[in-house]
Amino acid sequence: MTLLDIINKLEAYPVITTIVIALIPALWAFFKFKEYLRDKRFTVYHQLIKELVEPEEPGIPLKLDRQIAIVYELRNFPEYYEISRRILEGLKEDWKEQNLPRIIKEIDISLEYINKNKICKFIEKICKYRY
Fold this sequence. Notes:
mainly alpha
């Protein structure tokens, strides 16, 4: 089928042609927005990791409660679960030596959440919003 054949068929169906032409910009905008969200999530994730392991200013210790909150928030990035798991397991080993039981507990809870299969997470979400 040539381009001319396609154009002739589209001329025979003006309503469908109009709909298709109207959908092209909407689809373009949708894909651009998805790309923007993916880039935004990438930036937020990497900022969280940075805040988890690096002090804001040299010489100032990291805030434990902030680190605990960041470990919790890593659960909201399923596209990064694989690397989050490795990072958290490494930090857990490092921080065990520093006797930080509160953050170790949060890491364990987050790792348990990350390691659950998707069906369990889906059922958990449904139950959470039902009750």
